[in-house]
Amino acid sequence: MTSLDINRSYEQSADVRAALEKIQAYATKSHRTLIGLTGGPGSGKSTLADYLIDYFSKQKNTSVICLSMDGFHLSKAQLRALPNDDEAFARRGAPWTFDSLGFIERVKKIKQGYRQEDIFWPSFDHALGDPIEDDLSITKDTKVILIEGLYLLHQQDGWHEARRLFDEHWFLDIPVEIAIERLAKRHMQAWNFSHQQAMDRINQSDGLNARLVATYKEQADWLIRV
Question: Which is the CATH superfamily of the domain at 3-224?
Answer without folding.
Answer: P-loop containing nucleotide triphosphate hydrolases (3.40.50.300)
